[in-house]
């Protein structure tokens, strides 16, 4: 199974502030928002072709140090951004740390370079180059907003860096008609930033809803443990790690509690059992409830003697103490069936083997704490 791409959170205070989305946003959604800032290679390629192309055409018309500096800066920034983008995508896929702060810093530098180009063309008196550069800057701002609204503060900073110099250029150019830019661009900056914040809130709300729906789909609403779907997902995710030991549990005496004290008491008992299973001190143990009073645990592949010890630990954890349910202290036992999954085995087949081992244990002894 391919691993998800996880990009590192920013470490520098300025970039952390720029990417901050709110205290109520869960960590996993924050990571996903950071990942969305990396976009895709076609989007990156479109921006590179546009900005380098405009800088090249303007420099051909004005081969002065200022324009040559702009062109070289664009080429250097685009090449460095491409390197960091490719590196970070590989690192995120492999679970290594990414250069998130550097990537964000390069994006800000690119926006400043676009703004610099707009400024020098506006003050050059060449209105063909100025029109081309300003149109390019405006087009890039649309992309900035709708590609980076996962971080609205970053959007505002990039717009300010790319279009802000146009305001200065309009004033320095001494062209009276361009003074309208002094009013237009601040209004544009504010409106696009507001739009980015609204889109960000919609995105976060949607991601939280998807996260909650996925959790409900994979978890038992009563105990909070994984359900059958979550169990299947965990089993599949662990295939690459080698064999697995499957422990199938069935509570002894649960039906009597349900019949005598009612279903509400039975639910309390199931929650208490789930809490005890969560507290088991065993490395890399996955716990699920697959229905009724049946639980399934997954551990990495174990030798039979070690699996027997874990079975005994499960029995002791569940059976040693009485459960205070509805002002009554009730005893509960458990039977355990064990099966071992190896590469290529299906969960359904292993569950069937563990289930047979479980009922063989029940048949072999009437004691409620017998482990297979």
Automatic annotation (TrEMBL):
Record-linked InterPro entries: Biofilm_reg_signaling (IPR052155), GGDEF_dom (IPR000160)
The UniProt entry, under CDD domains, shows: GGDEF
> Which parts of the chain are coiled coil?
none
Q: Which organism is it from?
A: Sphingomonas quercus
Q: Which domain of life is it from?
A: Bacteria
Record-annotated GGDEF domain positions: 242-372
Alphabetical UniProt keywords: Membrane, Transmembrane, Transmembrane helix
The transmembrane residues are 37-59, 65-86, 98-121, 127-146, 153-172, 178-197
Protein name per UniProt: GGDEF domain-containing protein
